[in-house]
Amino acid sequence: MITISLEPVDSVSITSVVDNVSDMLLQNQGPAKRPSLSGSKAEPIRAAFLEGGTIADALKAEHGFSALISITKNESTRNVLFDTGISPDGVVDNMRRLEFSPKDIEAIVLSHGHFDHTTGIDGIVKELGGTAKLPVLIHPEFWSRRRLVVPGRSPVEIPSTSKSALRGAGFEIIEERQPSFLLDGSVLVTGEVDRTTDFETGFKIHQAFHDGEWQPDPLILDDQAVVINVKDKGLVVMTGCGHAGIVNIIRYARKITGEDKIYAVLGGFHLNGPLFEPIISSVIESLRGFSPDFIIPGHCTGWRATHAIAAAFPEAFIQNSVGTRLEL
């Protein structure tokens, strides 16, 4: 593969709008800036059983992921939303609490088709007045019907995004298997990621409905990441769930950009539960070889993996939470 030129940016700010964890007691840590103790800049809400009758409208956590990416280059700042969370209004409510507006977004990247990364599109469209003339970047497999098949249990179908609803809202839907760019070549969307490790073998209980029948779909090929090259610092690699495998993703980011230095890795690494916890040590050993300045796991990384990463990278590890802003 011929390497592609990713335009360096002067800086990038990434704010966790939706994540599984909220912690109002976290302190600023290096590039991580935390919200105030109240967790919100929004107007107080009524609380009848408190003296004074109000309380801060605090940020809400949910099992989902969304982040606002703000890049600065040549004194100009531009915004991309990466994923939209699991509830219809969660992402827009937290954006309001953080004093962001969907009207400031220039594009949306959806890491893959699972509903904990896509459902918040609903609230965004409502905030934009019912029509959203924004590009939405996805992989062609994004639309697939999926289900989980746990041995001994009935299959559970995963809600998928309605193609007609997304198109009807006015979005410019861009389907790409190959890498693509946003914001004048400053933000790289990986498209389909090469699978090169021998331990990141996918989600074995995951199936997709193709050609009239349910078929194994462990690789979840629509999983894609975002890559940004920060001038003089290196690559920032951001995942939604990281179904492609966080090591595969980092390797691929380096391969297609030709940039070796990994500045920061963040997002969901999907290392939770008995199917994935056995590979935690292999993932950590590979991450050592990349020597990232910062590692910020979130969403579906899981308790055991997060703690193992924190122990292995005491200087690089940053705990994530809703509202955390990374100034990189």
> In the CATH hierarchy, what is the architecture at level 2?
4-Layer Sandwich
Report the span from N to C terminus: 29 Å
Tell the overall outline.
globular
The count of DSSP E runs of length 2 or more, i.e. the number of strands, is 20
Which band does the percent of strand residues land in?
25-35%
Give me the secondary-structure category.
alpha+beta
Q: Any low-confidence stretches, pLDDT <50, length ≥5?
A: none
Task: Name the helicity range.
Answer: 10-25%
Can you offer a commentary on this structure?
With 328 residues, the chain is an alpha+beta fold. The chain has one domain: Metallo-beta-lactamase, Chain A. It is 16% helix and 27% strand. It has six helices and 20 strands. The chain has helices spanning 90-97, 121-127, 163-168, 246-257, 280-290, 303-312, and strands at residues 11-18, 32-33, 45-46, 54-55, 66-73, 76-82, 107-109, 135-138, 146-148, 156-158, 172-175, 180-182, 187-189, 206-210, 213-216, 226-230, 234-239, 262-268, 294-298, 325-327. The strands form four sheets. Strands 2-20-1-5-6-7-8-11 form an eight-stranded mixed sheet. A six-stranded mixed sheet has the order 12-13-16-17-18-19, covered by helices on one side. The longest helix is centred in the last third of the chain and has 12 residues, at 246-257. The chain starts with 10 loop residues before the first strand and ends with a strand. The relative contact order is 0.18.
